[in-house]
TrEMBL record:
Domain NADH-ubiquinone oxidoreductase 51kDa subunit iron-sulphur binding: 348-393
Enzymatic class: translocase
Name of the protein: NADH-quinone oxidoreductase subunit F
Pfam families reported for this sequence: Complex1_51K, NADH_4Fe-4S
Entries under PANTHER family matching the protein: NADH-QUINONE OXIDOREDUCTASE SUBUNIT F
Annotated GO MF terms: 4 iron, 4 sulfur cluster binding; FMN binding; metal ion binding; NAD binding; NADH dehydrogenase (ubiquinone) activity; quinone binding
InterPro entries, alphabetized: NADH-UbQ_OxRdtase_51kDa_CS, NADH-UbQ_OxRdtase_suF, Nuo51_FMN-bd, Nuo51_FMN-bd_sf, Nuop51_4Fe4S-bd, Nuop51_4Fe4S-bd_sf
Keyword Translocase belongs to the record: yes
Catalyses which reaction(s): a quinone + NADH + 5 H(+)(in) = a quinol + NAD(+) + 4 H(+)(out)
Enzyme Commission number, as recorded: 7.1.1.-
Co-factor(s): [4Fe-4S] cluster; FMN
Amino acid sequence: MSRTLSSIGPINRIARAEESHPLTWRLRDDGQPVWLDEYQAKNGYAAARKALTELAQAEIVQQVKDAGLKGRGGAGFPTGVKWGLMPQDESLNIRYLLCNADEMEPNTWKDRLLMEQLPHLLVEGMLISARALKAYRGYIFLRGEYVDAARNLNRAIDEARAAGLLGRNILGSGFDFELFVHTGAGRYICGEETALINSLEGRRANPRAKPPFPAAVGVWGKPTCVNNVETLCNVPAIVAHGVDWYKSLAREGSDDQGTKLMGFSGKVNNPGIWELPFGISARELFEDYAGGMRDGYRLKAWQPGGAGTGFLLPEHLDAQMYAAGIGKVGTRMGTGLALAVDDSINMVSLLRNMEEFFARESCGWCTPCRDGLPWGLKILRALERKQGTREDIDTLLGLVGFLGPGKTFCAHAPGAVEPLGSAIKYFRAEFEAGVSQAVLPSVEPA
């Protein structure tokens, strides 16, 4: 496994500790998976024992809510609030917990690290969460290309079941929970929770209309909660160490609590993933952890968290890495894995490449996304060949507005056009350079 995926480097080996790195302190320096015996030797499943034998279900929900844990998949919705939406009616005794492990956001691989190297952390997180939600069955909806993650998760589930940590009457608590890995067929839209539910049921992966929300009508019409891998992996530490400890991990000024898997890729000296406190500055992430740009390259622009976030400039590196901190400079935190764009890259070509992905991955359910993304891609291809027209840039900006938040059935199209709008904002000259000289107005000599 590469250094990028294993996050093994001098900084990481020195910094990881249980008190400050609840997600990654158990990682092995050789990048191999941590199996059951080693995981339990490192306090693994201690939080699950506490949750199942000492805490009431409502207490677990309240702890997660008070800790301020938010979704780590990109949307950032408060996890405890989401859990609280599950019905309390005891007659609804069939409930499901789904783990969204369909990690297909370009430039994002944080969940892969956890599933491949710490599979029992996810199993324990789902066990505790299922107890809180009164869910009797869980599914890990996994990106089909994550073959190593599927193998490691299935082994971890088998180990946990053999040890009495899954199945019936777990730890003598009277709680039953079964967990399964379900590999998807490779569609980006499955990252949207209701499209994921449709796919799990064997249907076409289209988003569903909301309401009803999955908490009321989810998998096979039953109450369902969908959480991201990294989100669920935070739960054991909260239960084990408490709310105050968890909230103390973030930097001063951050509205988000705890730590986050963050990273940098591109032509940087030390590409990788690190578990860092919310509120750290993007400059510290870029310079101290990623090591800045390689010799011969200059930072031209960067994205803070995946291909669906807007581009920022080098002068924005002083922004703090948390949702509102990145929001202050005009885009979203997203997944927290940043991309460095160097000065050798043409922004039109980069956007054309991105929009090819987004247009291809549209489910086609709503007209703005189905027709708007290919239209924008066609224009970008023309500009890249320097065959564009004077109206093309205004048309692209019009599409950014027409496909923005609230204009489409789900968030796919808004995420696709956010980088496009920001690229035109900061690098309009590069788009104007794609206008064919044949359509430029002639200039009469003075």
